[in-house]
Amino acid sequence: MKSSNKLIYHLVAFIVVAIWGSTFVCTKLLLLSGLSPAQIFTLRFIIAYLLLLGYSLTRNHRWFSKVWQDEVLMFALGLTGGTLYFLTENTAMNYTTTTNTSLIVSLSPLVAALLISLFYKSLRLNRAQSIGMVMAAVGVVIVVLNGHFVLHLSPLGDSLAFSAALCWGFYSLLMIPANMRYDTVFVTRKVFFYGLLAMIPYYLLKPDEAIIFTPAVVQFFNLPILLNLLFLGCVASMTCFLAWNWVLKKLGPVIATNYVYFNPVTTILFAWVVLSEQITIYFILGTILILAGLYLTEKKR
């Protein structure tokens, strides 16, 4: 891998995580407008899927996997990286603090590395890389807690947050064979399609949320609300998922997933720029640890 190309892959990974770190503001505004987390997820995935579907119609793209087992794999990707991840993460915040949720979910690279090491011996981390991953994880803890080392334990909420991290870990694991057999556009389109399909049982259990023309949805004619939704669908979902799946193929799932550690860092930076929130010494120290940890995870065996 050429060093210039490698730098591009790392830059794309960072940009994707930076964008994902900024989405909390858009999601919060949509929640305040009356939409539920499930409705926000569904609408943003519908937008992303329709855009990719339109692109595929202009190209000679395949519509189904080569064998039915791979189609099951695509369903598992949509379920873990889409439906279950977003539902467990958003629902967790109803039962535990935002700090707990952010902290647990941001540790998903550790979960992914452990899962991948169980199935792929060649992708196991060496000692330096393992130390780097732990350093980055400690950096995340320092950034998220921000000097307030008090956690309010909530078994249900914390379990849901861990389930979200587990879902992202499985998504990273399943992307390995998917990326080996299919191109990024095909895989990403399948993730959106099956992510939406897997929402049907949820709406059968909660039919009130399946009603389309609610007052909250009508508010999308309000330009700020519409722009937030389009940003989540076009940029944070379609563009970022395409870029992320491409980076997973180029850098490998372990190295790429480590960039998730930057999620709380970019969130705080975004809040600093937009909301004028203060940058603390804990944020700086945690960010340094994350950077040092990522450097070590890049060291060869």
Set out the fold topology.
Elements: H1 3-32, H2 37-57, H3 68-92, H4 98-105, H5 108-119, H6 127-145, H7 155-181, H8 184-197, H9 200-205, H10 215-218, H11 223-251, H12 253-257, H13 263-275, H14 281-297
Helix pairs in contact: 1-11, 1-13, 2-8, 2-11, 3-7, 3-8, 4-7, 5-7, 6-14, 7-11, 8-11
What report would you give on this structure?
The chain has 301 residues and is mainly α. The chain has 14 helices and no strands.
The total count of helices amounts to 14
Q: Poorly predicted ranges (pLDDT <50, ≥5 residues)? A: none
Tell me roughly what share of residues is in helical segments: over 70%
- The Cα radius of gyration reads 19 Å
Number of strands: 0
Distance between the termini: 16 Å
SS class: mainly alpha
β content, as a range? under 5%
Shape: globular
Mean pLDDT: 79
Order of helices and strands: HHHHHHHHHHHHHH
Task: Please outline the major beta sheet.
Answer: none
Keywords:
301 residues, 76% helix, 0% strand, mainly alpha
Compact summary:
The chain has helices at residues 3-32, 37-57, 68-92, 98-105, 108-119, 127-145, 155-181, 184-197, 200-205, 215-218, 223-251, 253-257, 263-275, 281-297. Helix 1 (3-32) crosses helix 13 (263-275) and helix 3 packs antiparallel against helix 7.
